[in-house]
């Protein structure tokens, strides 16, 4: 029996006869030879069909194959130094499994809306394959990192009554006879988790009714939110830079093939595996922006153009520390000796990518937290359970949230978040 393998395993089967279930992505043929571009979900490589080595029928089948036809190929694996995969298969037999007519995504260029309308098929392309491999590696590395650092993963609810990041971007839904919201952050629940288990992280979808139609905003995205008890901001910043360096190193170690497909230079990524990352205060960031001619004043939130400028001034990701209270959420710890700033930080990714992490030390005092919730006009009833965390053994604690698609977009050097998630959700896109 011929052994059935996946393309990625080809290197272990050189000069062996194998069987592979694959799809055709492209084809070239002449009178004597046909080149089949094949993919099976594990890698892409070439099949060579030589007319004088196969039956008339097999050669005819090869010549008539259409894009995205599925088939079993049997043949012998050979080294192929001309391709960056390094191996090819000399095809001996083809058994068609599923035919394909008029596949809509052809090797020619398509517009972005057309591609998004066909996202269920677009995922098959080489570039999308590479992005999803890297996404998968970053998810794997996230679990590895936090588990080895003594965190446990905790799953917060998706249906909630609370609005940690402000009420303007909530998706509201009917929940029997009350209102519920799709969670915009698992943080408040992660804080309960930290008081129960010391160090926790969440990793799941969050939802924001973002009206902004930018390359950095999705309405549904994935966030990783670690939260640590008995921890101040300084230690949290160290966890953040170590985590980012670990993610980049994991992609360098395990995704060389995918980075090559994306034409992403590993030498640039190597810069981000070195810690510590530079830090500047928000105050200084405003000065830098003003010096460069940006129309900003102290107290303004930083928009995409401002973050882009700042992140271009550094070779590594940069922390911007201690933002004004007015532009950040209620749960943050005020900075000692200042009445207008919080102990918080955003991490801006280099190469102009901007914010990938937001985090802070948390308010620990019951009365101050209660006053902060009221000052934001939030309904105290919904936060009673959260205030309990300050009533029973409150401790200094800190945490942060990494936007998963933002991090993928940066590491893969994409120009829009929509390619970083299999089925992106944006204001004008709910299908497929
Ligand atoms: O800065 P944000 O709003 O912070 C929080 O949600 C905190 N509760 C995190 C915490 O301290 N536990 O969001 C965190 C990150 C941002 O830095 C950004 O990377 C990403 O989530 N993000 C988005 N990603 C895609 N689309 C959007 N609309 C996003 N909004 C935020
Ligand atoms: Mg933020």
From TrEMBL:
Gene Ontology molecular function, alphabetical: asparagine-tRNA ligase activity
Ranges where the Aminoacyl-transfer RNA synthetases class-II family profile domain occurs: 134-422
Entry-linked InterPro entries: Aa-tRNA-synt_II, aa-tRNA-synth_II, aa-tRNA-synth_II/BPL/LPL, Asn-tRNA-ligase, Asp/Asn-tRNA-synth_IIb, NA-bd_OB-fold, NA-bd_OB_tRNA
Family: Belongs to the class-II aminoacyl-tRNA synthetase family.
Entries under HAMAP family matching the protein: Asn_tRNA_synth
PROSITE patterns with a match to the protein in the record: AA_TRNA_LIGASE_II (PS50862)
Subunit description: Homodimer.
PANTHER family, per database record: ASPARAGINE--TRNA LIGASE, MITOCHONDRIAL-RELATED (PTHR22594:SF34), ASPARTYL/LYSYL-TRNA SYNTHETASE (PTHR22594)
Protein EC: 6.1.1.22
Localization of this protein: Cytoplasm
Protein's UniProt name: Asparagine--tRNA ligase
Native source organism of the sequence: Lacticaseibacillus suilingensis
Main localization of the protein described in the UniProt heading: cytoplasm
Catalytic reaction list: tRNA(Asn) + L-asparagine + ATP = L-asparaginyl-tRNA(Asn) + AMP + diphosphate + H(+)
Keywords, comma-separated and alphabetical: Aminoacyl-tRNA synthetase, ATP-binding, Cytoplasm, Ligase, Nucleotide-binding, Protein biosynthesis
Gene it is expressed from: asnS
Pfam families according to UniProt: tRNA-synt_2, tRNA_anti-codon
Keyword Protease: no
